[in-house]
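Reopening: C-alpha cells for the coenzyme A complex, inputs below.
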Amino acid sequence: MTSIVRVRRAAAGESLAGVAAIQAASFYRAWGIDAMARELRENPVARLFLLEEIPGRVIGFCACWIVAGELHINSLAIAPDARRRGHARRLLTEVFALAVAEGAQAATLEVRRSNVPAVALYESLGFAVEGVRPDYYEQPREDALILWHHRLGAIRG
Ligand SMILES: CC(C)(COP(=O)(O)OP(=O)(O)OC[C@H]1O[C@@H](n2cnc3c(N)ncnc32)[C@H](O)[C@@H]1OP(=O)(O)O)[C@@H](O)C(=O)NCCC(=O)NCCS
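Re-run output (same inputs, fresh job):
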C-alpha cells in the first residue's frame, strides 16, 4: 500500500509516544517527553510539528518556538529507518511556511559541530553559521554552531 506522509501540529495533551521513540533512537540525552508536553500546555509560543506516515506512525518531529518574528528550532529528528528520503527537508519546508504565516521572518537553531547530516540539511535550506558557543554540549563536550536563516519566506520545497 502506498503511504501518505503529512505534517500536522500536535495538540496539547495528545500522546507523544511516537516522538519519544524517535528521540530515544536519535539523541544520547533526549529532551524529556514530559517537559515537551508541559511546554505545549503552558508555553504559548511552543509548537510541535509531527511528520506522519498514514497509515502508520510518526516518522519525524520538529519542536520549536515562534516568537518575536523568529522561528527557534529546539529539536528535530527523523526515525532512523526513514532517513535520507527527503523527510526532514519536507518537514522543515512546511514548518517554515507555517511559521511565516504566523509572522516569522527568520529562523535560528543550534547544532553540534560534528553533526554533518544536520549541518548539511540546514545549509541546503539556506541557513548559515553565524556563531559558536564553545563547549555548549556535554556527553560528549562539544561546541554548538549557531545557524540563522534571514529570509524564511524565500524557502520553497
Ligand atoms: C539530520 C536529520 C534530521 C536529517 O533527516 P533526513 O530525513 O535524513 O534528511 P533529508 O533526507 O531530508 O536530507 C536533506 C538533505 O540533508 C543533507 N543530509 C541528510 N542526511 C545526510 C547525511 N547522512 N550525510 C550528509 N548529508 C545529509 C543532504 O544535503 C540532504 O540532501 P540530499 O539528500 O539531496 O543530499 C536526521 O539525520 C536525524 O534525525 N538525525 C538525528 C537527529 C539530529 O541530528 N537532529 C538535528 C539536531 S540539530
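The first strand starts at residue 4 and ends at 9. The mean pLDDT is 94. Marking as resolved unless the reporter disagrees.
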